[in-house]
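Bench notes, afternoon.
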Amino acid sequence: MPVISPDEINVILATDCGSTTTKAIMIEKIDGHYRQTYRGEAPTTVEEPAANVTIGVANAIAEIGELAGRKLLDENNEIIRPARGNEGCDIYISTSSAGGGLQMLVSGVVREMTAASAKRAALGAGAIVLDIIASNDKRKPYEQIQRIRELRPDMILMAGGTDGGTEKHVVQLAELIAPAKPQPRFGSEYRMPVIFAGNKEAWPMVRDTFDDSVELSQVENVRPILDRENLGPARDMIHDLFLEHVMAHAPGYDKLIAWTDAPIMPTPGAVGNILKTIAEKSGINAVGVDIGGATTDVFSVFDGEFNRTVSANLGMSYSISNVCAEATMPNILRWVHVDMDERELRNRVKNKMIRPTTIPQSLEALIFEQAVSREALRLAYLQHKEFATTLKGVQQQRTVGDLFTQDSGGNSIVDNMKLDLLVASGGVLSHAPRMEQTAAMLIDAFEPEGFTRLAKDSIFMMPHLGVLAQVHPQAALEVFERDCLIYLGTCIATAGKPVPNKVAFEYRITGDITAQGEILAGELKRIPLAADQEARVSITPHRKLDAGNGKGQSVEKTVHGGTVGIILDGRGRPLLVGGETGYSRQDVSQWVEALNLYENESLVSSK
């Protein structure tokens, strides 16, 4: 593909092929600045009967062409390039998670150490990790071999041992995987890619263990020494093999690869890219979530440390039954403030699985879907916090035996009190009818503490911008700042359990708006503050509660507004809703009213 100078790029076309929907955007250079101008979407066509991803891509691009009055496709449905007058585009780029995205098996000697590092490398590259095989994972060798045979991953990442450390256990892992003859997901037309990122001293023996039924490659060790990770080389190799092997064998991807002007990235890898860029540029701690039909991805950057997790069974269409099973229906219904027929809800869940592109047709259906999303997000964030930890096995004064225990070190680096920015993306969050609903889902699921700015990806363009950042960083950053994020406002909440019927905290607001008062235990209050406004907010919490400076200590900060404004949250952390000791349905109704979540309550049928 010809190299195009960034100065000559005036019209950019980008698509994201999701498991349900293919989303396309057009970015144009207007008065010297890049702006997102048009968008289109169409059902993804990776499955039968179409079984060709480019059909959905062409349909989404055709919609943009109609809206823009620009001819983007020729008679053969090929993208016209370069841009001339009202025809074509200068570059076309894409991300993809269609067909289930990138699915991997990882292995390591110690599950909590080298295997965890390998998992971090795979997740950071945008993969779903199907399973972890480790020397200490409590399964017998024949059970591990059976598991490897059952799974059909796209590739395998092997880690194990620090450089110059154990060789025996690393080779034993290879001796489990090699005879299992793992089969790739898209059939036997290509050899299973296996990446070795373990003790380099063990490489010759590992290489001799495998035959030519696999495509074996070596990269630098993901854990060269006990207290350091080196994930970059493994991530880069995963990206390369994803393009060469996996994408090339998925239906229609060979044609899509030929169309693009930059390597196709897994959607989550692209979203992670742009979040890292923002956090580094602004010097903040940030959490981003992308909730899709099949999976929920959580990204975090705390003190410069990037982590990503995939909750493979938590999604809003294909995986909605799993959410209901894992969260349980009582936990979902604790967020619902009206009577609903549980049997009817279960039918609705099953219908959503078989018709994944449907959206709620009534207010009752919307309330239920947003309740499900709270639980999916909450569970995904819990999993993320458990995974995003400091390196295990590094602490002083521990015995070798301690390294093999589940609780050996590894404190979560995710700290809600340090969180500066929480970004929402994915259909149920990005397309919620009211901004207040998006803010409420984020606050209820993530339970931010102290002062946290809330934002949403306006039309889910973070994946597009993540891959664009690889090609044209300036354009990606300009569009991100001007068109991508919609700031919802700032949530202010105290940590700790508030005393019922007592004041949780006092507040005083000065600046573009002025207000002062008290927030009672269990109370939510919204104070309008526009996106272009800011205010100085002083909080004095109850002596048992913490707003960031310690229990009972005052905190004063400058906050930014948004479409929702300032949300003062006196419900405490952790947020206990439902059950015998948690907040009641009456409390939930008051929160709905306080944030004006659902305007037309008459649409809800009370049973």
